[in-house]
């Protein structure tokens, strides 16, 4: 069984561009917010990286 490429593209866009894997509730003691794992690294969305790449390849500033 093959999954149509349009479905794969839609899911990939939702996950990596829209950030559907972001902002959910931390439910248990074993769950950790990514900000606690990497406190010195700012959150940079993939869409910001793509925008920077498309506009002369300059890395985005930390927000």
From TrEMBL:
Native source organism of the sequence: Nymphaea colorata
Protein's UniProt name: Uncharacterized protein
């Amino acid at each position: 069984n093959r999954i149509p490429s349009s479905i794969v593209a839609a899911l990939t866009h939702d996950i990596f561009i829209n950030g559907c894997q972001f902002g959910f509730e931390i439910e248990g003691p074993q769950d950790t917010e990514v900000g606690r794992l990497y406190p010195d690294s700012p959150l940079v969305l993939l869409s910001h990286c793509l925008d920077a790449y498309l506009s002369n390849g300059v890395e985005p500033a930390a927000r």
